[in-house]
Amino acid sequence: MKIGGLQRVSLIDYQGFICAVVFSEGCNFRCPYCHNPELVDPCLFRTCIKENDVIEFLNTRKGKLDAVSITGGEPTIQPHLTAFIRQVKKMGFAVKMDTNGSHPQIIKNLLSEELLDFIAMDVKAPMDRYKDVIKAQVNTDFIKESISLILKAKIPYEFRTTIVQSQLDENDILEIARLLPKANSYILQKFMPTKTLDNKFLKEKSWPDEKLQNIKTILENEISSVTIR
Ligand code: SF4
Questions:
Q1: Residue ranges per structural domain of the chain
Q2: 42-51: per-residue pLDDT in tens?
Q3: pTM for this prediction
């Protein structure tokens, strides 16, 4: 695993759990609003933290932390992800993983080996607009396959969409929601212009609160839990 960062303790990354957060380095998408550019743009990469050092640290946290949250970057592009998670699970930690859904085969293997306790997937845009929003090539059949695997998974999950006003309108969100039939958790993430992969996006905004509330109410007809975060 290329590990670009380690947060030793977090109370907010995995609801209900005290966790460490492992940030994998590298991503196959280039979302301009990404708030972790140092994990996405190779020019900004720093010296990686050794996987063994992370494992050693976690060994000292047994009984103090409940879980490990693996985020990025995009964890599923890491060749040693599965082996890393196996070690973390052996230590007794619950594992949450964030993903952009571009590698369904990895998700499928992790689910079938029961290596995940929670999965959060970003659904970035309606399928025909995906490339425009993430600014990279993508196989949208893979995105749809990941959605389907997660909907069928026997673990808690959430789907999330980052709302940037210039990128997505209400119809886009309704179209995304149609890809998530009977999902039980969908997060509308307000874009915050704090740090972005594309500096031009520092001038972008999310939707006004009222517009977010309106779409939430509409989505709640189909999705049992819709959260604005
Ligand atoms: S937002 Fe996620 S998927 Fe997009 S570039 Fe950043 S890490 Fe990659």
A1: 3-228
A2: 999 999 999 9
A3: 0.97
Pocket mutation for ligand 1, best pick of 2, 25, 28, 29 (most atoms within 8 Å of C-beta): 29
CA–CA distance from 217 to each of 62, 108, 185, 222 (Å)?
42, 32, 14, 10
The residue contributing the CA closest to ligand 1 atom 6 is 34
What's the CA-to-centroid distance between 64 and ligand 1, angstroms? 30
CB 167 within 8 A of CB 122: no
Per-residue confidence at 145, pLDDT binned at 50, 70, 90? Answer: very high
Q: Which atom of ligand 1 is nearest to the CA of 73?
A: 7
Mean pLDDT of the chain: 97
The DSSP 8-state label assigned to residue 113 in this structure reads T
- Determine the residue of 21, 31, 163, 167 to mutate for testing ligand 1's pocket, defined as the one with the most ligand atoms within 8 A of the Cβ atom: 31
Distance 74 CA to ligand 1 centre (A): 7
Q: How many CB atoms lie under 10 A from the CB of residue 210?
A: 7
Distance CA(105)–CA(181), nearest Å, equals 21
- 148 band by pLDDT with thresholds 50, 70 and 90: very high
Q: Which two tokens stand for residue 105?
A: 């085969």
pLDDT per residue as tens digits for the range 171-215: 999 999 999 988 999 999 999 999 999 999 999 999 999 999 999
Q: Which CATH architecture has domain 3-228?
A: Alpha-Beta Barrel (3.20)
Q: Are 40 and 73 in contact (CB under 8 A)?
A: yes
